[in-house]
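Weekly modeling sync, notes
Attendees: S.R. (lead), two postdocs, one rotation student

Agenda item 3: backlog of single-chain predictions. S.R. asked that every request posted to the team notebook include the full sequence so nobody has to chase files. The rotation student volunteered to paste the first one in as an example of the format we agreed on. Action items at the bottom.

Example entry:
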Amino acid sequence: MPKNLAKVQKKIAKKKGNVSSLHENSRDAKRLRRAGARSEKLEKLAAARGRATQPLRTYLARDSTELSTLQASRRPGRPTSTREDTLKQQRNAEAKEYVSGLWLPDMEDRETVEKLKDWSGEWMNLNTLRFVRVKQDGTRHASSFPPKGQS
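Predicted structure, as returned to the notebook:
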């Protein structure tokens, strides 16, 4: 049975003809409503994931203006500066980590937020916080910090 709204509409149109001539409580109308609700739910989920990863993408692009000015100021045929090389390496490393998943404190957990407010900056206290791993596609997985290779 198709789950995509377009596929459901196509299948019903093939069977019945005009989709707008369906009875309100018919099986096909119910299938259309379910498929519409499903596609709407998936769109909302995709939008929420996009909003959740926007601050991370902004953070990863923080040095893009400096990198572009360094590239523009370099004469053609000249080697790259050490600062430009450093920025490129840093950007590549952070992009790889973002694809595999960044470890971040779980800001949706009230207890973790309170502990972060009281945090003195010592590494010893990080194990008391709850961490999540946020991947590029916006998925979040519960994790521990420092990573032990399993999460």
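Discussion: group reviewed the output briefly. The beta strands are 102-105, 131-134, 140-143.
Action items: rotation student to repeat for the remaining queue; S.R. to check formatting next week.
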